[in-house]
User: Fold this.
Amino acid sequence: MTQRLFRLSAFLSESGLIEALRHPDKISVLPVDQDVDLAELDALISDLNSRGAGDSAIDADLVEPLHRCLRHLPEEITTDMRVWHWFCVVRYPELVWRRWRGLPPADPEEGFLKGQGHRPVPAGRFLGTPSINGQGRNTFARLFFAAERLIGAQGEEYDLVRRLFSSQELHLGVSDREYGLLPPVNRVLTRELADLPDLKVRAGVRRLNALGGSLCLDLLEEDEITELVRQGFEEGVG
Assistant:
């Protein structure tokens, strides 16, 4: 069943985030001229919320249904952060709290403060910016763009995408760097590093980052990038 997709009328700033979360029904939104089928995503998120699911395990559950329902959209829509603000602040805020805090706070302001056994949630988990770093912080955008870079709009290799999110160290390392925009680099790093301890993941990401200063990674084939990563560990990097 298709539904209307919305975006905020204006970018939401950190200073207005608390009031927006308190009164999401008062946020001005605009319909996006594209229909989507959010039924599977709605059902999954409802189930996750009702079970009290939390932490990073949510990512692997969400990434496939989220990407499948949005991957037909043109880039001018998926790169509009107002769409992702709508996902996080208006449609699925409870899921954002559960992912990063474990439990929704009694009041949104409390959720951004340390205390009561819960860690504070950075505002970027609801907001984010159009940069690769900003997309990598927004709770939903980070999942969608990771899948786009790994398998593309027509891909079906979601096991690889779920492997990426089994290592938060790897996802952060890739999303913070320009080479994270390169699909071959994403695929190689996920295949080679996702199952390794964080220290080795960090070392592998750093090595490729250093090599990027002297090599044009976007001109290399996947087997060449794989060899660079493996060579680093053979030489004792990390």
